[in-house]
Amino acid sequence: MQELRPEPLGAGVVKRATRLADGRELIYFDDPDTTLSAERSVDTRDLGPRPATASMRQDVLTGDWVSVAAARQNRAFLPPPELDPLAPQSPTNPSEIPSVYDVAVFENKSPSFGPALAAATGDAPEGADAPHGLDDLAALGLGRTRTSVGRCEVVCFSPERAGSFGTQSVTRARTVIEAWADRTAALSALPGVQQVFPFENRGEAIGVTLHHPHGQIYSYPYITPRTQRLLDAIDRTAPDLFQRILEFEQAGPRVLLRGEHWTAFVPFAARWPIEIHMMPHRHVPDFAGLTDAERDELAPLYLRLLRGVDALYDSETPYIAAWHQAPVHVARDTARLHLQLTSPRRAADKLKFLAGSEAAMGAWIGDVPPENAAEKLRAAIEGVTL
């Protein structure tokens, strides 16, 4: 056992950092009412070397960068509950987390970006070629490659083997939000990182390979294509585009929830059968910029939203909950933190699959009018109790 140094965060959450057997960082975030002690078990596993940092290739037709991370082929795929790699370690389960925890965050064993940023600091493995800034990434050319510097982290919402963010208590949700804010600040400070993206994939229909309640945080060495289009829209309209969108939606028929600090709505041009956006009422670039009051309100509001989505049908709804944040070094005063939750579920027993028009051409056809979707979601949310 080792006693880990406490670092107090907001809302009474306490952070304790340590290392796994192969050197990956592991961070515990303790609930304000935790029953856990400061002592945590040491990871004594005999682990092999970490995979080499992946490389990425540029698609010269679009300018997009594609990370080729072959080590991800070896990641766990729907293991039985007794071998859950995100549960606390036991004598029969040599999992990734050595101690019982409230919320735990650790570096992904098979990352898409990373596992280290050594290439960006000059202490790079032979042959590494980190991106040389945004101008370098924007240049086009055949056969261009760069090292996939960055970092990917797993965020475990609970030690329980089943569930999702929406099944957590308000207190636990608040702890996760504090963890998102802490990690956003820390990852944004790493050399070479251009954007930080917290998200949750839920359901096998989305491609989830672990049923344990968890999300992830990707730290990219570039600004993602989605965000580049967003920044272009801001440039072509107005710096306060997000505020204009918020006021437009608040005055319309698609609002689902509205608090003192947050509004959730079905967007005017929703692509998916279930699509929900939520944003803060003031400009905030990322989780680290939220006030305590904004974080406090988000916890129950977000839980109501997720439980409302599940109340639409008699079974759990698959979704991707994507928290878009401003890039680390540009557009901090114009790109606003916001949630985009999407689900392909268009009926109790039907999913929307991306066919030719959407998948090949990026030309979307909506199956459900956004106003109809908002009406059904509001009715489902009204029945939710926390």
Content-based structural category = alpha+beta
Query: Could you say what the CATH architecture of the domain at 227-382 is?
Result: 2-Layer Sandwich
Give the CATH class of the domain at 227-382.
Answer: Alpha Beta
Percent helix, as a range, is 10-25%
CATH-defined topology of the domain at 227-382 = HIT family, subunit A
CATH superfamily of the domain at 227-382: HIT-like
How would a textbook summarize the main sheet?
12 strands, antiparallel
Radius of gyration: 21 Å
Portion in beta strands: 15-25%
The total beta strand count reads 19
N-to-C SSE string, H for helix and E for strand: EEEEEEEEHHEEHEEHHEEEHEEEEHH
Large-scale geometry:
globular
Distance between the termini: 36 Å
Largest sheet strand order: 2-3-4-8-10-12-11-16-17-15-14-13
Low-pLDDT residue spans: 117-126
Count of alpha and pi helical runs: 8
Mean pLDDT: 94
Describe the structure.
The protein is α+β, with helices and mostly antiparallel strands and 386 residues long. It has a domain at 227-382: HIT-like (HIT family, subunit A, 2-Layer Sandwich), CATH 3.30.428.10. Helices cover 23% and strands 23% of the residues. It is built from eight helices and 19 strands. The chain has helices spanning 118-121, 134-138, 170-188, 225-236, 241-250, 292-310, 356-361, 370-382; strands at 2-3, 7-8, 14-19, 25-30, 39-40, 55-58, 65-68, 103-107, 145-147, 151-156, 195-202, 214-220, 255-258, 262-265, 274-280, 319-324, 338-343, 345-347, 350-351. The strands form four sheets. It has a twelve-stranded antiparallel beta sheet, sandwiched between helices. A three-stranded antiparallel beta sheet has the order 7-6-9, with no helix packed on it. Strands 1-5 form a two-stranded antiparallel ribbon. α3 crosses α6 and α6 (292-310) crosses α8 (370-382). The chain is globular, with a radius of gyration of 21 Å. This is Galactose-1-phosphate uridylyltransferase.
